[in-house]
């Protein structure tokens, strides 16, 4: 039986993965090693019972008593805290879903790769913060990383049977998020609730807001560079409001391979779960006559400073991705908390990168995970200072 684990089981990607695992036979078809979650221990315990997991892990120590109670009599072990997440990642498994949100997903993924596992990677922050290290770690241990982000799954599928050297360009599609048609002055004053009204995709709160600001696409541009090894100027972004083409690969002979499908993450997750085979998936089929047309437009750089920042990060490389992601996470915290406005998020990231590039060598290649985590920590502090300064100015 295939041994599987899932990090971030209780999130949006986690729930979709759980749905597919149950449809494909559940505990009768998979041996579940570990499931991890955060504060929603009731749901975590329910999933662990359904899949008869060996161990359930909550990221938070204070949630452990509740998790223990919820698992009473099941024989499933309950553990808690960041160290417990690593212990869970060290339990050998054949397939591991990495679906924690944010840089917190980095270390568990690293640990999992050491055991030569196949890592289904939804946690794009891992590649943004530590792409070269992560890819090298996978190569060293004969482990495979399969992309779960819909764009990267699309590119991966468009590359089957092709030579990466024949690739001329990669076109990442972007829905534009909830605020794509708003005038610029109104965009700056958008609220959290407004940024959460995504037109096409149902996702976790953080990535939904990142879609509206295009920080999600900025992360994905960097993710593309790190995963597929193409040059930054080979990566384009196009706004495609229907979200039906998930991305495209252009070859040197001018041919474009596009991947189309319903906006349902179970497609990309199911592809990674069943790779290299394809299995029946419960996703809607496209009716082209009913759709009528697909539309595209170029992203406006003034609207989306995140895309410009991603280009700067790729030019700098080294630790710039770690700083960028950390600053983005803090800026998002402050926006959600009401301290800063929607447009201020890019200003916080910009200010953080500027401050760090004056004092630190952002371009230095990290020697190990510790260097990445140290820069992550530093950038969070710096971004906090920038966010508070901007927030104070706004209030005053
Ligand atoms: P989510 O917020 O719905 O779920 C996040 C999961 O991580 C939860 O299980 C939560 O308990 C856990 N978690 C949160 N903080 C943690 C911490 N500090 N330590 C340990 N666990 C923690 O997020 P999501 O939308 O499912 O996204 C998960 C990842 O997948 C992100 O990296 C996101 O960018 C990526 N992704 C998501 C989608 C989508 O459709 N939701 C699409 C593409 C990529
Ligand atoms: Mg995506």
Automatic annotation (TrEMBL):
<feature type="binding site">
    <location>
        <position position="217"/>
    </location>
    <ligand>
        <name>1-deoxy-D-xylulose 5-phosphate</name>
    </ligand>
</feature>
<comment type="similarity">
    <text>Belongs to the DXR family.</text>
</comment>
<feature type="binding site">
    <location>
        <position position="151"/>
    </location>
    <ligand>
        <name>1-deoxy-D-xylulose 5-phosphate</name>
    </ligand>
</feature>
<protein>
    <recommendedName>
        <fullName>1-deoxy-D-xylulose 5-phosphate reductoisomerase</fullName>
        <ecNumber>1.1.1.267</ecNumber>
    </recommendedName>
</protein>
<dbReference type="GO" id="GO:0070402">
    <property type="term" value="F:NADPH binding"/>
</dbReference>
<feature type="binding site">
    <location>
        <position position="211"/>
    </location>
    <ligand>
        <name>1-deoxy-D-xylulose 5-phosphate</name>
    </ligand>
</feature>
<dbReference type="InterPro" id="IPR013512">
    <property type="entry name" value="DXP_reductoisomerase_N"/>
</dbReference>
<dbReference type="Pfam" id="PF13288">
    <property type="entry name" value="DXPR_C"/>
</dbReference>
<feature type="binding site">
    <location>
        <position position="123"/>
    </location>
    <ligand>
        <name>NADPH</name>
    </ligand>
</feature>
<feature type="binding site">
    <location>
        <position position="13"/>
    </location>
    <ligand>
        <name>NADPH</name>
    </ligand>
</feature>
<dbReference type="Pfam" id="PF08436">
    <property type="entry name" value="DXP_redisom_C"/>
</dbReference>
<feature type="binding site">
    <location>
        <position position="11"/>
    </location>
    <ligand>
        <name>NADPH</name>
    </ligand>
</feature>
<feature type="binding site">
    <location>
        <position position="40"/>
    </location>
    <ligand>
        <name>NADPH</name>
    </ligand>
</feature>
<comment type="function">
    <text>Catalyzes the NADPH-dependent rearrangement and reduction of 1-deoxy-D-xylulose-5-phosphate (DXP) to 2-C-methyl-D-erythritol 4-phosphate (MEP).</text>
</comment>
<dbReference type="Pfam" id="PF02670">
    <property type="entry name" value="DXP_reductoisom"/>
</dbReference>
<feature type="binding site">
    <location>
        <position position="151"/>
    </location>
    <ligand>
        <name>Mn(2+)</name>
    </ligand>
</feature>
<dbReference type="GO" id="GO:0051484">
    <property type="term" value="P:isopentenyl diphosphate biosynthetic process, methylerythritol 4-phosphate pathway involved in terpenoid biosynthetic process"/>
</dbReference>
<dbReference type="InterPro" id="IPR026877">
    <property type="entry name" value="DXPR_C"/>
</dbReference>
<dbReference type="GO" id="GO:0030604">
    <property type="term" value="F:1-deoxy-D-xylulose-5-phosphate reductoisomerase activity"/>
</dbReference>
<dbReference type="InterPro" id="IPR013644">
    <property type="entry name" value="DXP_reductoisomerase_C"/>
</dbReference>
<dbReference type="InterPro" id="IPR036169">
    <property type="entry name" value="DXPR_C_sf"/>
</dbReference>
<feature type="binding site">
    <location>
        <position position="10"/>
    </location>
    <ligand>
        <name>NADPH</name>
    </ligand>
</feature>
<feature type="domain" description="DXP reductoisomerase C-terminal">
    <location>
        <begin position="260"/>
        <end position="381"/>
    </location>
</feature>
<feature type="binding site">
    <location>
        <position position="149"/>
    </location>
    <ligand>
        <name>Mn(2+)</name>
    </ligand>
</feature>
<feature type="binding site">
    <location>
        <position position="220"/>
    </location>
    <ligand>
        <name>Mn(2+)</name>
    </ligand>
</feature>
<feature type="binding site">
    <location>
        <position position="12"/>
    </location>
    <ligand>
        <name>NADPH</name>
    </ligand>
</feature>
<feature type="binding site">
    <location>
        <position position="39"/>
    </location>
    <ligand>
        <name>NADPH</name>
    </ligand>
</feature>
<dbReference type="InterPro" id="IPR036291">
    <property type="entry name" value="NAD(P)-bd_dom_sf"/>
</dbReference>
<feature type="binding site">
    <location>
        <position position="150"/>
    </location>
    <ligand>
        <name>1-deoxy-D-xylulose 5-phosphate</name>
    </ligand>
</feature>
<keyword id="KW-0464">Manganese</keyword>
<comment type="pathway">
    <text>Isoprenoid biosynthesis; isopentenyl diphosphate biosynthesis via DXP pathway; isopentenyl diphosphate from 1-deoxy-D-xylulose 5-phosphate: step 1/6.</text>
</comment>
<keyword id="KW-0521">NADP</keyword>
<feature type="binding site">
    <location>
        <position position="204"/>
    </location>
    <ligand>
        <name>NADPH</name>
    </ligand>
</feature>
<keyword id="KW-0460">Magnesium</keyword>
<keyword id="KW-0560">Oxidoreductase</keyword>
<feature type="domain" description="1-deoxy-D-xylulose 5-phosphate reductoisomerase N-terminal">
    <location>
        <begin position="4"/>
        <end position="131"/>
    </location>
</feature>
<keyword id="KW-0414">Isoprene biosynthesis</keyword>
<feature type="binding site">
    <location>
        <position position="216"/>
    </location>
    <ligand>
        <name>1-deoxy-D-xylulose 5-phosphate</name>
    </ligand>
</feature>
<feature type="domain" description="1-deoxy-D-xylulose 5-phosphate reductoisomerase C-terminal">
    <location>
        <begin position="145"/>
        <end position="228"/>
    </location>
</feature>
<feature type="binding site">
    <location>
        <position position="198"/>
    </location>
    <ligand>
        <name>1-deoxy-D-xylulose 5-phosphate</name>
    </ligand>
</feature>
<feature type="binding site">
    <location>
        <position position="220"/>
    </location>
    <ligand>
        <name>1-deoxy-D-xylulose 5-phosphate</name>
    </ligand>
</feature>
<dbReference type="GO" id="GO:0030145">
    <property type="term" value="F:manganese ion binding"/>
</dbReference>
């Amino acid at each position: 039986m295939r041994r599987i684990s899932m990090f971030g089981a209780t999130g949006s990607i986690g729930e979709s993965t759980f749905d597919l695992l149950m449809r494909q036979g559940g505990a009768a078809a998979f041996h579940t090693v570990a499931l991890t979650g955060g504060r929603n221990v009731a749901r975590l315990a329910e999933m662990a019972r359904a899949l008869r997991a060996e161990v359930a892990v909550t990221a938070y120590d204070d949630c452990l008593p509740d998790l223990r109670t919820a698992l009473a009599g099941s024989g499933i072990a309950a553990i808690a805290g960041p160290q417990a997440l690593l212990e869970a990642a060290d339990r050998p498994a054949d397939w591991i879903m990495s679906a924690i949100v944010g840089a917190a997903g980095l270390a568990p993924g690293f640990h999992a790769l050491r055991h030569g596992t196949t890592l289904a990677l939804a946690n794009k922050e891992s590649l943004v913060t530590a792409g070269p290290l992560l890819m090298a770690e996978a190569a060293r241990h004969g482990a495979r990383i399969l992309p779960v982000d819909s764009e990267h799954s699309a590119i991966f599928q468009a590359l089957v049977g092709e030579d990466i050297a024949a690739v001329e360009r990669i076109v990442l599609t972007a829905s534009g998020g909830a605020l794509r048609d708003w005038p610029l002055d109104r965009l700056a004053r958008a609220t959290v609730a407004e940024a959460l009204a995504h037109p096409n995709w149902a996702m976790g709160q953080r990535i939904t807001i990142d879609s509206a600001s295009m920080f999600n696409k900025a992360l994905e541009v960097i993710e593309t560079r790190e995963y597929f090894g193409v040059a930054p100027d080979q990566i384009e972004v196009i706004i495609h409001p229907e979200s039906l083409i998930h991305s495209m690969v252009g070859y040197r002979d001018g041919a474009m391979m596009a991947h189309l499908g319903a906006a349902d993450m179970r497609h990309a997750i199911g592809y990674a779960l069943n790779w290299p085979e394809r299995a029946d998936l419960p996703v809607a089929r496209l009716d082209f006559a009913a759709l009528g047309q697909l539309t595209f437009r170029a992203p406006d750089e003034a609207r989306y400073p995140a895309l410009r920042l991603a280009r700067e990060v790729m030019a700098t490389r080294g630790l710039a991705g770690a700083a960028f992601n950390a600053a983005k996470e803090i800026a998002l915290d402050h926006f959600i908390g009401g301290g800063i406005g929607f447009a201020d998020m890019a200003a916080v990231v910009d200010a953080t990168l500027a401050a760090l590039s004056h004092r630190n060598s952002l371009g230095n290649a990290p020697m190990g995970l510790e260097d990445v985590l140290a820069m992550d920590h530093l950038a969070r502090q710096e971004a906090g200072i920038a966010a508070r300064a901007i927030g104070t100015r706004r209030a005053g």
